[in-house]
Hints:
With 350 residues, the protein is of the alpha/beta class. Helices cover 42% and strands 17% of the residues. The chain contains twelve helices and 15 strands. Strands 4-3-5-6-7-13 form a six-stranded parallel beta sheet, sandwiched between helices.
Amino acid sequence: xxxxxxxxxxxxxxxxxxxxxxxxxxxxxxxxxxxxxxxxxxxxxxxxxxxxxxxxxxxxxxxxxxxxxxxxxxxxxxxxxxxxxxxxxxxxxxxxxxxxxxxxxxxxxxxxxxxxxxxxxxxxxxxxxxxxxxxxxxxxxxxxxxxxxxxxxxxxxxxxxxxxxxxxxxxxxxxxxxxxxxxxxxxxxxxxxxxxxxxxxxxxxxxxxxxxxxxxxxxxxxxxxxxxxxxxxxxxxxxxxxxxxxxxxxxxxxxxxxxxxxxxxxxxxxxxxxxxxxxxxxxxxxxxxxxxxxxxxxxxxxxxxxxxxxxxxxxxxxxxxxxxxxxxxxxxxxxxxxxxxxxxxxxxxx
Length: 350
């Protein structure tokens, strides 16, 4: 092991680390590549030797030898909102456990942008993809299928996943919330959606429409928000709703962020929530229970979706999970003060 000026090691090899730790080079390699297979004491000894020698593991050389990069890619519609934060954490926690690095990219809710992102990432040879959503361009689907790289789609449902799926029925979940509002006595229920091509948003809108139709409440009333991730968009829609005659008695929103913006806007206008108009959201974000009044919402297992998707992907990469695996996640209807429930009431759906 050569020494640089100042005593820093130069050209440190895995064999150098093994000598300092008193183990074999194969054991050092296992600690670096498959730490979960090494007992804690041995792992600590090797890690101490790595720190002492200043060894830097050459991931490029390792990936060339193993045909694996040690990297998984997470594709999100946006990183500008808290909506997907818990799912990111779920993927990240699993990746860390398996000594895999996670990289993220966003598509800005654009299938065309998603195609560009995935094509660029494939050139970097990730071991697999977790993708939020199941709606892709034909070119994107072809790229992924021909690459042979494992893919797990999530946050939506489809009978034809590219590879594997951790699904959520946005249609069923929003229909269930609409039915819950009808059961509470609301009859003029408006919905805040979006004009974008985001399939998850479209399926939630369809679920609302189905709930209204089955209740025999006439034509649905859908108002589109410009920005799905902004409370300001919720405020703008609330002003439009307040000006309607007759005014809706309940406003069901695409997500909790829009619902919070609308709720606060109604209060600033002097409208009582839920006395003058009820408000409900979707997502079960942490802040929903801390608003005053607390926000009724569809609580979805955001962290668990990310966790399960990553576990499924790791299994596909390792060859321990078969292609075509599907896991459908459930949801909970949580009725709180914003729709007139003095005590939180929950309905579980599998």
